[in-house]
């Protein structure tokens, strides 16, 4: 059945569907499919954990190698042939050959990147579901609510539970885009595409000093509105904002050009990736004026964070995989409430312990070629979760 209500601009209705409670064979079939997904997730965890350790050590070695050979440049305005092919460190203000334009809105800026962000006022559907059992049936109560919001992507209203009264346009009349300067320099050196890609600290551009570009466009704050009344927009209205990254010239409204620090290989007047003996490449860019030591410290910190994030992802993948593969034991006893709850707790503890032990073993295997002593210590540590789990099981009483 359906139930409607209207709370201001937010509209909502409730829909209840029911289906027979799945039988034992049906639940067993679903569990079998889950076991297959669990197996894939479980195997993926091994690959993720093992390769992550090799990547972490390789990156650390490359950074240490880079720190030992990097050459700080005396001047960014002269190119020394002595440094050809070497890893160099330099810091200075960004510069570009010509400004970036958006002629549609009469806007130009001397920057590395200019992003036009277009949003449309649209209907958005929210869904909140809950399931319960009643008269031997599984009932699902879903509350659908609708509100209007500014969105950067087109929301497809055809997928709504109720499109009538909540219809969105199928496309935007104005598209978003990002313009990138073809030539970006620090002093006399041109940055590679990889270095330019790292300039991504976007800031919103103030439009306060600009005029309305067209009769049907109104400026309000830092937005251009395609709307009859920006204060009370209608579905289909557009608003446009601009963002820039890498200010590359002194601007009366925005201030001085952005400074960056670069560590890369000198090739003529180009700064390009430097291949290390460990098999990695060094092509580093940070905003601001940083010393060699500060740059490599930041890179090591970034490598450590990435390593731990991937370790956590690998462990979680393994835990989920084991949980899905052992779910069949829960399905076999799920008609006995007390037994079912005990089995559920037992399976979770089992998955937790096995995932922790196997994760530590896999990480130690990844270290075997790089840090043999640490690998051995970690392998011994991997037995701790299993021993803890076994010690928590009470011994059988003597007859």
UniProtKB/TrEMBL annotation:
InterPro entries: TMEM43_fam. Keywords: Endoplasmic reticulum, Membrane, Nucleus, Transmembrane, Transmembrane helix. It is found in: Endomembrane system; Endoplasmic reticulum membrane; Nucleus envelope. GO terms for cellular component: endoplasmic reticulum membrane; nuclear inner membrane. Pfam families: TMEM43. It is a multi-pass membrane protein. Signal peptide: none annotated. The chain crosses the membrane at residues 32-50, 308-330, 342-361, 373-393. GO terms for biological process: lipid metabolic process; nuclear membrane organization. PANTHER family: PTHR13416, TRANSMEMBRANE PROTEIN 43. Belongs to the TMEM43 family. This is TMM43 protein. It comes from Anthoscopus minutus.
């Amino acid at each position: 059945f359906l139930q409607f209500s209207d709370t201001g601009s937010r509209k909502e209705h409730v829909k209840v569907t029911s289906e027979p409670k799945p039988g034992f064979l049906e639940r067993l079939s679903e569990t079998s499919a889950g076991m297959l997904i669990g197996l894939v997730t479980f195997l993926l965890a091994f690959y993720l954990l093992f390769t992550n350790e090799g990547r972490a050590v390789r990156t650390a070695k490359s950074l240490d190698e880079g720190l030992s050979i990097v050459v700080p440049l005396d001047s960014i305005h002269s190119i020394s042939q002595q440094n050809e092919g070497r890893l160099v460190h330099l810091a200075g203000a960004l510069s570009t050959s010509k400004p970036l334009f958006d002629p549609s809105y009469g806007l130009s800026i001397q920057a590395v990147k200019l992003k036009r962000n277009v949003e449309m006022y649209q209907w958005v559907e929210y869904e909140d579901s809950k399931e319960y059992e009643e008269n031997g049936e599984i009932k699902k109560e879903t509350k659908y609510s609708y509100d209007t919001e500014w969105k950067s992507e087109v929301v497809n209203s055809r997928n709504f539970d109720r499109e009538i009264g909540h219809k969105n346009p199928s496309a935007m009349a104005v598209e978003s885009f990002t313009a990138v300067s073809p030539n970006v320099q620090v002093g006399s050196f041109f940055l590679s595409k990889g270095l330019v890609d790292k300039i991504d600290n976007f800031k919103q551009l103030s439009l306060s000093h600009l005029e309305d570009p067209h009769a049907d466009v109104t400026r309000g704050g830092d937005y251009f509105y395609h709307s009859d009344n920006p204060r009370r927009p209608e579905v289909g209205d557009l608003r446009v904002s601009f963002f820039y990254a890498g200010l590359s010239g002194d601007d009366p409204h925005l201030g001085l050009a952005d400074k960056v620090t670069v560590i890369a290989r000198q090739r003529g007047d180009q700064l390009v990736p430097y291949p290390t003996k460990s098999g990695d490449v060094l092509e580093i860019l940070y905003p601001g004026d940083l010393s060699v030591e500060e740059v490599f410290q930041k890179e090591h910190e970034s490598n450590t964070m990435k390593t731990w994030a991937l370790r956590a992802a690998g462990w979680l993948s393994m835990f989920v995989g084991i949980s899905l593969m052992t779910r069949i034991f829960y399905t076999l006893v799920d008609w006995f409430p007390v037994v079912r709850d005990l089995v559920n707790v037992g399976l979770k503890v089992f998955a937790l312990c096995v995932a922790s032990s196997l994760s530590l073993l896999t990480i130690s295997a990844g270290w075997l070629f790089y840090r043999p002593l640490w690998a051995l210590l970690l392998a011994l540590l991997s037995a701790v979760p299993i021993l803890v789990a076994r010690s928590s099981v009470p011994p059988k009483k003597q007859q």
